[in-house]
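in:
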């Protein structure tokens, strides 16, 4: 049950959390390991600070953005998988997208992340 809660914090505390990269990094240090690796299409991030910067960059693209868990999270050993939906608005336009997360845990924090996402 602990990794399911960590995934919920991943969505709520980070992706739905503050927009400020410094505040996000503070939260990220409690959710991911110091040597965290995140694999986005086209680039990787390393450590809580780079993760926070990537999340802040995503948030900057929208006036408002919110994520919700649609499926899972499912836990199998050290791996966690979940499906989420996101809704962002910018200049009065709404953008909807969905994604699938796969995370590898080390203890009670995430050490590695793979993302697949697309816009609806």
């Amino acid at each position: 049950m602990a990794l399911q809660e960590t995934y919920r914090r991943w969505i709520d505390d980070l992706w739905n959390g503050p927009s400020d990269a410094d505040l996000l990094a503070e939260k990220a240090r409690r959710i991911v390991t110091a040597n965290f690796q995140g694999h986005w299409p086209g680039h990787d991030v390393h450590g809580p600070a780079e993760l926070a910067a990537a999340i802040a960059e995503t948030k900057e693209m929208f006036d408002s953005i919110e994520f919700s868990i649609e499926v899972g999270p499912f836990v199998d050993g050290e791996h966690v998988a979940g499906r989420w939906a996101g809704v962002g608005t910018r200049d009065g336009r709404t953008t909807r997208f969905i994604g699938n997360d796969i995370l590898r845990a080390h203890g009670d924090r995430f050490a590695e992340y793979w993302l697949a996402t697309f816009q609806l």
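note: The longest helix spans residues 2-15.
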